[in-house]
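# nightly structure sweep
# worker-07 picked up a monomer target from the shared queue
# config: single-sequence mode, recycle default, output format = structure tokens
# input follows
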Amino acid sequence: MDTLLQDIRYGIRMLAKSPGFAAIAILTLTLGIGANTALFSVVNSVLLDPLPYHEPDRLVAIYARSKEFSHGSISYPNFLDWVRNQRSFSSMAAFREDNFNLTGMGEPERVKAEMVSANFFSTLGVNPLAGRLFRPEEDQVGAQPVALISGGFWKRKFGSSADALGKTLRLDGAGYTVVGVIPADFRYQSGNFHNSDVYVPIGQWSDPTFRDRHVGMGMDAVGRLRPGVALQQAQADMDAVALGLAEKYPDADKDKGIALLPLKQDVVGDSRPFLLVLLAAVGFVLLIACVNVANLLLARSTGRIREFAIRAALGAGRVRVIRQLLTESLVLSCAGGGLGLLLASWGTQAAIRLMPDALPRAQSVHIDSRVLLFTLAASVLAGIFFGLAPALGSSSAGLYSTLKEGGRGLSRARHRLQGLFVVFEMAMALVLLVGAGLMIRSLGNLWSVNPGFNPRHLVTFAVSCPTTPGGTPGAIRASLRQLQDAVAAVPGVEAASLNEGAMPMSGDSEAPFWIEGQPKPAADSEMKKSLFYVIQPDYLKAMGIPLKRGRFLTPADNEHSPFVIVIDEQFASLYFAGQNPIGQRVHIAILNGVAEIVGVAGHVKQWGLTEDANSPVLAQFYMAIPQVPDQFMPLLARGGIFVARAQGSPETAMRAIRQSLEKINGNIVVYATQTMDKIISDSLAAQRFSMILLGIFAALALALSCVGVYGVISYLAVQRTNEIGIRMALGAQRNDVLRLILGDGAKMVLIGAAGGIAASLALTRLMARLLFAVSAYDPLTFLAVPCLLGLVALAASYIPARRAMRVDPVVALRYE
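# output follows
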């Protein structure tokens, strides 16, 4: 330890004598280690950390499986049968997202809510902060309405007072007694279910549609495996359950299955491949940084060869010299690692704030002991990696020849190793530049995709109305017409429509159907499926969707007129190929109605800009809100989502819309305001996140590589000063010297580019799943990137080449 401390003190003194060198080396390592630490902290939190529940490895996400959707929502009657018939889970819980109007506690507001089964929190192993959880008898129709509140809501509305228990919340006009408080940091990390304000028993919801075995209503489930039961056993058990239900209820459950997925896998989703690609990319940055520092150390060690020779003459062995040099390298790397950790902490949080929706579990990203160990390991390994070659080279100096030549004898042999380092840097930088180029092209292709509507000046917002128990279907229709009229009358609003069905890139609703004249399928699973939009007459104008043929829905299409729909181009091409769909009739199973097709509209990319023929249900149809059957009107009574096209700023239009709706009823709540441009942008969050990070890594790699080229060419130019002097004395012109020096740089760039292209061809196929409308071997990218790299590298070589051109032959020859 005494020797180690002595080496560290000596190393710090030597670095202090070269502050410029130390600053550049530490900065280089800070960037390399900091970028790796930042990304590893993301990978650690997203992929490696266990979910924050009791025994999370036993938790399983449960979905309904059909031909269209591998992970679909579950009908409540089916869920109850699953619970009764399964043998693999110690408990199964259901949940669905909802929202309520909260009144009676100041200004009316919209609160995020979740309907959950009574055992939801016990299944996850979550205990209340205060009070109790739901009881089984409270999870039934007709039971006393009760609610759990989140710790954040408890603090905001009740000041964290114990008196909150037993208080009544007015949710959508109904009173719910608060029986418990859920921890503020609770977050169910699956799908869109995040921190909610209020939880209510799902079994109390008495809506007839929710009790229909054919309908999912956005409900999912989670289960806890019994001890000793493997996922494969549970899947076999649930397959048998699904088969039994298909035999018992063939019209609803034929060909329907049950999908089980480890909850951790369900949470991570598709983020694993692109995070691993980014981790590999940032590893290249660290390698380039290490090689750059190794080059700096090699150049610096040239001036220290006489020092090491003298130390050897005084009795220092080769191992002792190597140990001293490695200690100096580790001092550098640990300094860079410490600063890199600070950079990572700041950079990670900044990235998450800028793009919170790009990753699952983004809010849980943090620096923990595993990240600290990673940073320490990266710093130590980096120090050994970039310090080993200079240490071995310096310690191998011949004692006699070094002392005789004054320390200059080894410099010519050493430049080959430096050249190899630069070639390696160039190859790694090219790989990163190719990856960034492919992602830029991919994102550019996505932005150029026509979504099927015009998102400019288009705003969406949700409206929640105070419910009137026992409201008639006629009163509900009149209320919804009043809302639409109020929004459409706002100055600056060109068109507006309420939408109660699917919403592009936000939510989906599907309906089974069959075409009149064809035999009715025996089961829902055998029927064709279509997305449906329940809208008002101005929907097409508001969205900017083109009408291809026929007409769109009008105010005359009401509850008293024949049932009509408008289909989209996909519907027409899939089911009426070579025919005129206008006038054809369609049986819509869930509505028990027969609709006549009166028009064909353009297709909307419901599933995002990446939608293709392999996406789920593509056919779409539109129906008028007034023609919704009476039994479904209570579902529409609470409001819905509006789309409005503004002439000017959407923000200005929204202020006027809020004022107009408040005049109708002061308890109306407007929430979830977004522009369609923002919705499209959010749908590309993961691709944009990948592109930005790859771009940053590639820019770092390019900058570090150019610094390496500059340093090596400068070093070579100095070493060849005598040669240049002789050439110029014998008649060589300055342009000849320029070509000579640039030639050295060009050789390294060409060799590095060739190696980088070969590596890119092998590695970019790993990115294929992240790309859109561009090949992993895109020729334009593979042509443009080497040209860019070559131009930048030659520009870095030009400065030392210009300096070499100014060599005075007399001064150069004086040293011979």
